[in-house]
Specification:
Blueprint (H helix, E strand, L loop, with lengths): L11 H21 L5 E5 L6 H17 L3 E5 L6 H8 L7 E5 L1 H9 L11 E16 L8 H10 L5 E4 L5 H13 L4 E4 L3 H10 L4 E5 L4 H5 L4 E6 L24 E9 L4 H15 L2 H9 L3 E2 L4 H22 L5
Parallel strand pairs: 1-2, 1-3, 5-6, 5-7
Antiparallel strand pairs: 3-9, 4-7, 4-8, 4-9, 4-10
Helix pairs in contact: 2-9, 2-10, 4-11, 6-11
Amino acid sequence: MNLIKSPWTRSPMQWMQSCCLTFAALSASAQDYPTRAIKIIVPYGAGGSVDVIARTLAQELTPRLGQSVIVDNKPGAGSNVGSNLVAKSAPDGYTLLLTSPGNAINVTLYNPMPYDVRTELTQVAMIGRAPGILLVSNSFPASNVKEFVALAKKSPGAINFGSGGSGSSEHLGAEMFKSTAGIDLQHVPYKGGAAVINDILAGHVQAFFTNQANVVGQIKTNSIKVLGVAASQRSSLLPTVPTFAEQGYPQQMVSVWWGIAAPSKTPLPILDMLNKEILASGASAAMRSRLTDMGAESIVTTRPQANAFLEEEIVSWGKAVKSSNAQVD
């Protein structure tokens, strides 16, 4: 009669040999990486700043990694659909996520969450960030933040603002300013920021608290009016537009950022390789030019720094979600 040994009856030497074989397999896998195409999941639709950054990064990473890096848009549930897909994917370095403020906001906004951004994903590197702005149509009767506030106080609730959806960074950025300035604005949620921009131009909605990377074309053609920049210093893209701080509202500091995450159990050698090549891509002339054109700046981080940055954003946006009583559409 053949006896099958239970794994629990293995000797210490057999356990050590098994562990060594497993480690060797993982090491070989990491050394061979990558051997096929890598996919970057963008959890939003095509055309926005998140998508543009992902596609520029993919172009830079392809020759560096020696394999095609492709972008796949998986929008839905405020980035949760695409993010959950990556969180539940194989931890082999072939499915990555383009992260942004939505990944920090949703921790507090959604209950329950379909995935845990802290335990099922790990941040590989940060790419860049761009400051938030307050924009209106050229016909709007205010030329700066102070005039905007004065109009809002004169007619509470009469001014409306659009956003890419309830709980989006655009919505919460506006809620922050409402609280700071003591004004009442009417929220008009859309299914994506591009539709808000179109309605700003058409005069159907009056204000938009967004980031300047989303409206580079409109800024350069002077088809919109920017009243303030939510950063510590003026934007190189908008050198004549004062910051909120210059106009009496230093608390209004909002920016959009972009990073790359992977499933949390991805082997460390693969994560280290990706961090190195993503940072090298960020320092390339093409990537720096793209970021500059968007009025953004690059961010250089180690993996621990990238994860610490995300944690800070989770706490910061969590406060905004709670104070605004934001709810998902």
